[in-house]
Each structure stands twice: as structure tokens, then as C-alpha cells.
Amino acid sequence: MRDPVVSTRITELFGIRHPILCGGMLHLSDARYVAAVVNAGGMGFIGAWNFPDPDDFLSEIRKCRELTGGKPFGVNISVSRRPGVNEMLRPHLDILVREGVRFVETSGSSPAHILGALQSAGVKVIHKVPSVRYALTAQREGVDAVTIVGAECGGHPGYMMIGTMVQAALAAEQLRIPWALAGGIGTGRQIVGALAMGADGVLLGSRMLVAAELRSHPRYKQRVVEGNGEDSCIVMASFKRHHRVLHNAAAEKVLQMEASGITDIEAYTGLISGAQVRKAYETGDWSIGMLDYGQAVVFAKEIKPVEAIYDELLDGMRDAMKRFAGLLAAGSSG
User: Fold this and answer.
1) I want to staple 192 with a disulfide (CB 3.0 to 4.6 A). Which of 14, 146, 179, 320 is the partner?
2) Model confidence at 80, in pLDDT bands (50, 70, 90)?
3) Can you tell me the distance from the alpha carbon of 24 to that of 57, in angstroms, rounded to the nearest whole number?
4) What sections of 107-238 are H helices per DSSP?
């Protein structure tokens, strides 16, 4: 674990060395991956929906605690917009509180209905949003921090599709609570840029798709290595469910269906179902499923351990900070 390069409100909130969070990835974020992130000096989040059976979830929590040597880690809770679905995660909330999980990353709909119970149990909540407008709402509701994702991100960037740099400038003007920036970030230079614009940290997703500890098939990871960031596309835009994914055969079929005006969401089920995504990750058949895939994959050039990825990012941060210091010196001497 490298020594800290900077100290921010995010490193203080999570008690971590580096302002680099790794978001909870659906079907992928498990104890092994999250522990590797924590042991590298960052913060990761086990995906609660990745372990729908409460007993399996409990086992994963305890496995992560063992792998981190007792260091704190987080859990991701995706809050559904569909009535009744969130009740399926009620046992998971009870488990994470009982087991002493200190951090929760929420995404999707507002976490207001679970916020009080989590915070009264000492859990810090960071909510992920697709624009500063929603970040301000989350701030009013009382979350401890927010992550703002830009249009470049893999997964769901929101229907407004606001770029990461614009999000950063707006957030710096309007937010009071700690905030992280996400979307298209995969180098240390970008992390320093985000901090310079006012962010307290960054959140990575697509950049980490080549992490050795991630449980996806090596064949899929190799496809990510070969990607260039231009091989993503936005599907489900006609439903205002914008989803940036790998432009594979399944995504192309969805795009064709949308272009032909098919508005019956049920017609898409066989292509966009979670079962297809799980199969792709398990078998390495990247032609199927809507696979979250952001533009930062262009920086994922090699399959390697999380710690090695963090080392690369931290080296990039130091280089960027030296360059900036040099610019300041040159400017002041003139």
C-alpha cells in the first residue's frame, strides 16, 4: 500500500489513504475484488444485488472482513424505482448493520427511506447521481457524500448526458458536502484534474474491468484490453433509460429495434436481462448482454492486480502534480 499523495474530505470520510473509490459493479463486485481495493488504500463496495440470498450476502461480508484484516469496506445498494422491489433487500440492510459495515454506496432512486436507519447505526452513505441537480437533492436529504457521474461513464449516465468536466465545475460551485467525480476517469492526471476542479475524490468503474481480482472471465477482460473507448454505445435512449454498454451484437440488435420504433419494453427482455449479462461474464462470450462499458476502458491496457492499477494511478498523480508545480513556478517567475 503506497503512502498518501493527498488528503481530502473523501479520504477523511472513509479513512482511506487515496481518494480513489471503486463503485459497486452489478454482477461483479464481490469480497475478493472489494478487499483488493481496500488493501490498496481505496474504498470498494460489495454489490448487495450480486448476492440476492441473504445467507450468501452474509458470507460475502464476513469473507471481505477476513480478506481486509478487519479494515472497513462498503456495500452498494441499488435503490429501485419499482414498488416492492426494495423490500427484497431489507434483510441485506439488517445484515450489513448487524455486521458493522461502515459505508454504503446508494444508486438509482433516492435513498431517503433508508437513510435514517443507516445513519443512526453509524453508517456513512454516499449516493451516486447523474447530475448536480440530483446531488443537491441528495444533499438536502442528508447523505454524507455524493458521487456525480458524467456522460462518459459505463452503465447509466442519466438521460441528460452531461459531461464529466461540466459536472465538476457545477458541483464545485453548488455543493457543500464531500463529493467524488466519475465518468471517463482512468489516469492519475485526470484524478489530479478532478481534485483541482474541486472534487474530493474520484470513483472508477470501467478502468477496473481488467482487475485480476474481478470475477469476470479472462476472455472478457482481454476484450476490454483490446477496446479503445470508442466501442461503446448508448442503448435504451428511446425509453429515457440511457445505458452505456459495449457495442456488441446484442446492443446492436437493441439499437435496431429502437430505430424501428419498437416501444414495448417486453420485446427487449431477452436481450437486456441480467441473466444474459451474468452469462457473458461467466463464459467470456462478450457478444451477449448489455455489458456496462465506459469510455475509460481506453486506459485499461493490461490485466493486472488492483494494487498495480492503483500504483499506476498514484504515479500519474505525482507526475501531474510535479508538472503543475512547474507551470506555477514558470508563471510566477515571468
Assistant:
1) 320
2) confident
3) 14
4) 112-120, 132-141, 164-174, 188-196, 218-226
Are both 270 and 126 inside the same structural domain? Answer: no
277 and 175 within one domain: no
The answer to whether 237 and 247 have CB atoms below 8 angstroms apart is: no
Domain boundary residue among 150, 173, 204? 204
Q: pTM of the predicted model, to two decimals?
A: 0.95
Residue 176 falls within a domain, yes or no?
yes
Cell triple for 274? 441480467
pLDDT confidence band for 86 (50 / 70 / 90): confident
Beta bridge partners of 124: 103
Which pLDDT score, from 0 to 100, does residue 54 have?
97
Distance spanning both ends of the chain, measured CA to CA: 40
Is residue 316 situated within a structural domain? no
Q: How far is CA 35 from the centre of its chain?
A: 15
Q: Which three cell numbers stand for residue 148?
A: 456525480
**Residue 47's closest CA among 312, 2, 187, 56?**
56
Residue corresponding to grid cell 461483479: 28
What is the Cα–Cα distance from 18 to 42, expressed in whole angstroms? 6
DSSP state of 69: T
Looking at the structure, tell me whether residues 193 and 224 fall in a common domain: no
Grade residue 1 by pLDDT with cuts at 50, 70 and 90: confident
Instruction: Give a yes or no: residue 327 inside a domain.
Output: no
Q: What range does the domain containing 229 cover?
A: 212-307
Check if the beta carbon of residue 249 is closer than 8 Å to that of residue 286.
no
Q: What 3-state DSSP class applies to 285?
A: coil
Q: Residues 43-67: pLDDT tens digits?
A: 999 999 999 999 999 999 999 999 9
Instruction: Return the beta strands (E) in the chain as ranges.
Output: 20-22, 43-47, 74-79, 103-108, 124-129, 145-149, 179-182, 201-204, 232-235, 243-246
